[in-house]
Request: fold
Amino acid sequence: MKIAFAGFGEVNTPIDIIINKCKAASESLKSDGVEVIAHYPIRDDYEEKDVNAAIDFFKDKEFDALVLCIAGWIPTHAVIKVAEQYRNVPMVLWGLCGWIENDGRLVTTADQAGTSALRKTMKDLGYTFKYVYDIIGKPSRTDAVITYCKAAAAFKELRSAKIGQMGFRDMHLYGTLFDGCSLKKTVGTEIECFEMLEVVQRAEKVTDAAIDEVINTTVKKWNFLKEADMGVVRRGVSYYLALKDIIDERKYKAISLKDVDGMKKLLGFPPAMIFMLLAEREGIPTIPENDCLGNVTQTVVKALTGQIGAYLEFYEFFEEGVLAGVPDYVPKEIVDGEVTVIPAAFGELSQGILNVSKVKTGKLTMCRLAVEDGKYLMHMVVGEGTTPPKWEEAGWTQPAPQLPALKVLMTDTEDFTDKVMGQHYIISYGDNSGVISEFCKIAGIEII
Reply:
């Protein structure tokens, strides 16, 4: 993440005060993975030497967000002349504050005079920005600035991100569809479809040595509750390696497969272990059933949090929360303990490698991107993931497996279910509502 930092102060304010305040603020933004490109002081000198020097300094530099740091009163024009060069870049209007001397005197450089003059101007000019101000005696709101900049960096990343979908509209579902132009306009992400035939053709060319390497380094580390047919395992690995080639070639950030009407119906192969290998070895989010906006939600969550953005689907609603699980797999990243699998069959489907691992509990954020009447929405809730009761899905070979799941406790379950946007929701651990909200504000997505 690269942050441009422009520090401003009025020409009549002692320059050392402006420099020291800007230096402390810019240094506070530096952390692991954050690069700060700083220039200060920028003052309103009559000949505009400082403003022109700032414009020259930032010219041709790449950054994800621009922080306009107001270290004292500054006439609006001096700030706008710099900001206007980057009107398409998300910005933070950050007002610093004064201090208390040892004798109890409050000393101010009128920082909030500067920010209050700028806020509406920036809004009227159509800038995308967040307004942050510090308060004397309170910790500086550096975290708020970094959170917004992180959201801005993710937004920039997703403008050129691509998602791969093998096939389209599994089971003829409506809730998994997408509109390419509105998605590109709002989030920026492209969804590309490719055919299952391409995967099969590439899988046929995978070498035994390549399959053996995956089995020896990954599959053998899984805990198999029953012995699996190695022919099934090798076939799954060959499909994984074929998809890996496609992902590497086309730089996909996430992937989905035509599941029920594709892999299972036409190839007789449930794709759970393929998804497991893609998530564990390639670190990319995966979701079944051509869930387009589910995939997009995953890419957003991963860009913002660094987490895999696992999917769960709903099975039951309770007064105090929901039972959310999966009938196939969870990525290793969210497994509590060892990855546990079992050969199993469901209804008329062929036997596959079913993941029955326990899922990590704890505070989590559950969200999904959706479209309603042409408007993009992000439905989001912060809840507590708890160990689910003993349960099973009817249809599995008896004794039925205990599927991976969580009972997610919520403060207002009915409010959540009244707005539910589909059967698949994306989880990330911790309260990530702040950074997700900032991303949505930048992208123009309504949060519900």
Observations:
- The two ends are 28 Å apart (CA to CA).
- The chain has a mean pLDDT of 96.
- Residues 103 and 137 are 15 Å apart (CA to CA).
- The chain is about 35% helix and 25% strand.
